[in-house]
User: What shape does this take?
Amino acid sequence: MAAHLKYATSYRSSGNWYKGNLNSHCSEHSNCSTIPLKKLISAYEEKVYDFLSVTDHDHYTLLTEDIQPQNLLIIPGFEYSQQKHMQLIGVKDIIRLDQQLAILQANDQDGIIILDHPNWEESPHWTVEQMLELKGYHGIEIFDGAVDRMIGRSNATDVWDALLTQGRHCWGYATDNSHYLFDIGRAWVMVRAEKREPAHFLESLKNGNFYSSTGAELKEIQLIENKIHIETEKETAFRFIGPKSKIIKTYLGQLAEYWIEGWEDYVRVEGYNKSGWFWTQPFYGL
Ligand SMILES: [Zn+2]
Ligand SMILES: [Zn+2]
Assistant: This one.
């Protein structure tokens, strides 16, 4: 491992935090979903989300005129399901190409590409090798709420660390992947943005200016010189994690700091409190 003098942060210090889910399905356009579109929208609105993507399987779902959410912003997208699943968020239209070409096409449409639920099925949905071969995606699902009720595990931070350890820079997104009403509200992203507008959310989602959560809320996350500074509202168990999933430091409290030493090719922070888990994006050695 090389020694790094400086580290990069994807977190900006200004803006507000906004809550959103990037993986959901309605019964009109996904056979596997039991939630009608109107109910899906109202359920997320009731839970006070700022934004939602309805991502049906190979179907570009738009709201009909009788569905007009008051406070929920919709970011269009779909779940590419021709080959291994991936979220294509903010794209302009459906894409039906081979996996790598679909990723390139989604980039051409200014979309965000997230490889889905790697720990679904007893054998991995994606292997790390397959993920390393592909180019041009922004990140992977590190938590997919639906997988716990199927064969697999919702948490895929082991796969994320394997990619990061190999030097592949990618962000970690948590989602509900909602198919039943009880899937709604299990996991989401908190995006930091200057304005409550889809274009601002997309920019932050693309650049890693967000964290993932199943409940824990961050007050602050910053890199000051080479010191990671993180604050939460509630007493939290923090873990600073480096290459090969190594737990570098743990801390209990509402504020944790870690001076990166230089050997770490990346450091990320995760933790939990009585509300749930959070996962920050990695700070990369330059
Ligand atoms: Zn899927
Ligand atoms: Zn899905």
About this structure: The longest helix spans residues 37-46. Helices lie at 37-46, 99-108, 128-133, 157-165, 198-207. The two ends are 12 Å apart (CA to CA). Residues 142 and 157 are 5 Å apart (CA to CA).
